[in-house]
Design a protein that fits this description.
The protein is α/β, with parallel strands linked by helices. The protein contains six helices and twelve strands. The strands form two sheets. A seven-stranded mixed sheet has the order 3-2-1-4-5-12-11, sandwiched between helices. A five-stranded antiparallel sheet has the order 6-7-8-9-10, with no helix packed on it. α5 links the parallel β4 and β5. α1 runs parallel beside α4. The two termini are 30 Å apart.
Length: 216
Amino acid sequence: MKAVEENFNKVWSSDSPTSEVSTLDQKELDLFIHCKRALDLGSGRGGNAILLAKKGIQITCLELSSVGIKKTKELAKCLPLKIIKCDLFSKLPFKDGTFDLVLAYQSLNHNSKDKILSTFCEVKRVLKKGGIFSIRIANRETFRLKRIQGDIFLDEDYHVKFQMLDNQTFKGLSGDEEGIILYAFYEDELINDLTRIGFRKLNSRKSKFHIIANYS
């Protein structure tokens, strides 16, 4: 886990202004209008959390990267954010039914599928009845991979190398995700897995690289 933290410390040390911008669409913001207490899983530099806090939502951030946490505190200034350093793929440190809203934006694909499904179950546990789980996760259908040799591929969009462990599981060999195991979903697969856990789909759509979906 230390290696994962070091990788994300590098990511959040970047001066890229886009890392501080919320990735929430107006469609999601309209859906969250009645939410009062939210959890942001893998909050990074806090772009989404800060936007929601400005709208009056009481928000808790879970982030493994100490750099991400530091940047979030700097950007949040006087906003009442609660920030916890935590591994997203362990038991979440909250009582059952704590939150109206749980966000996971480009954070939960950084592990093997069994670990991701365990975290989905934890989200279900800490979410209030009728609460919203909003997720943005890697879409396997959009990958453009060029085989270099054997099970080593180049991602032609991100220009990084991966070792494909199976059709949907891969290990970063270069770039920000070097050494990290990742998993990419197909949309129907994600819907089926979340439905099996007990979620009800509100809506689902695909962007260029991600599946964006909301469940209750």
